[in-house]
UniProtKB/TrEMBL annotation, chains A, B:
InterPro entries: PhoU, PhoU-like_sf, PhoU_dom. The lineage of its organism: Bacteria, Bacillati, Actinomycetota, Actinomycetes, Glycomycetales. It comes from Stackebrandtia nassauensis (strain DSM 44728 / CIP 108903 / NRRL B-16338 / NBRC 102104 / LLR-40K-21). GO terms for biological process: intracellular phosphate ion homeostasis; negative regulation of phosphate metabolic process; phosphate ion transport. This is Phosphate-specific transport system accessory protein PhoU. It is found in: Cytoplasm. Belongs to the PhoU family.
Length: 216, 216
């Protein structure tokens, strides 16, 4: 049987998994606002982000509690400190979902969306895959899954480049819609980046190797 | 005289201050690329971001070292855990400066910039003020300065709204330049947001009060 201290660490990990599921769900909702023009769902996603933010405070409080309990050994300490960073990235992923939901409401289904929907659909699929893999990585700490997040993110980056490519010469829906499209795309792209950072944290937990995040 | 443990905490704070000065310098450089079309400076800002990222790892390593040294009491622990979060926000501020420098090189001084330069100049001034105040807050932990960052950030948000307003009907420089302008504006806006988060962390350090970051 695990002692109280380690049971608390398990609970901490469970809270990260819960956060990860929430940000997966949030981006799924946001993607539906976008690709299905389901604007009724937007307010739900936007309101739900407050719960995700509060989960981060729960994680932070638990970390403080755990740290005051006893002097942690190196491996436990590594996990505890990583939790703070992982929760920060998850919180940002929630922000990105909120951002997509907010901007997606304004896109004209018969205008800007006609030209961008296929790419957005692919971005939505990639984001869902990334989010589910992030949750799995937190559950299993599988190093292979964690590093595969880099590849999924490369795909997302490529989609983002293609999207920006649409906003060049052949764009006919005006500057304002172009900005909304680019901002939505960037939110998906950032969502992937944060998942990659979580993957690197997990690799660091498992191996002690730091993967330096190089400038994009 | 301070003992080794507290001397290490001082060093940790010095590293945060050093990071804060670096991100102030980075955004000043990026702003010169933007408002003075000093494109030669862009590569310097972009390369410098790697140093800022590495400062974050230095902070993280020091935190781990400090934590394995001894069981910290509540107030020290609060500072140690805050350092991780503050370093994360500073690292992101560095990213925002890099992003401005990168995109600013593409803006046409005789095109998109003619319409946006006054607002960008105001954003550059606001960013410099915010960055300097952030450094001062880390140096003095002055609660008033920390909360004033919220007001400075409100000004930045207002400038960002005005900038986006420029990209509506009267915009004549095409969708691609509109997207670059919006992304640069958003980077300044995010730069301010991260400074506000640092301000809240410092208030939390001084008072123990958590200021919940509400969705924008």
């Amino acid at each position: 049987m695990r002692d109280t201290f380690h049971a608390d660490l398990d609970t901490l990990n469970d809270q990260l998994i819960e956060m990860s599921r929430s940000v997966a769900e949030a981006m799924r909702g946001a993607s539906r606002v976008l690709v299905e023009s389901d604007t009724a769902r937007a307010s739900e996603v936007i309101a739900g982000d407050t719960d995700i933010n509060e989960l981060q405070y729960t994680v932070d409080d638990r970390v403080t509690e755990i740290m005051t309990q006893r002097q942690a050994v190196a491996t436990d300490l590594r996990f505890i400190l990583s939790s703070i960073r992982i929760a920060t990235d998850l919180e940002r992923m929630g922000d990105m979902a909120r951002h997509v939901a907010k901007l997606a409401q304004r896109l004209d289904p018969d205008g800007a969306l006609t030209q961008t929907r296929p790419i957005f659909e692919a971005m939505a699929t990639a984001a869902a895959r990334i989010a589910d893999k992030t949750t799995r990585v937190l559950e299993t700490r599988d190093r292979l899954d964690a590093t595969q997040l880099d590849l999924d993110d490369d795909e997302m980056d490529a989609l983002y480049s293609r999207l920006l490519g649409q906003l060049s010469s052949q764009w006919t829906h005006g500057a304002e819609a172009a900005v909304d499209v680019a901002m939505i795309g960037r939110s998906y792209e950032r969502y992937g980046d944060h998942a990659v950072r979580i993957g690197h944290q997990v690799v660091y937990l498992v191996t002690g190797e730091i993967h330096l995040d190089r400038p994009q």
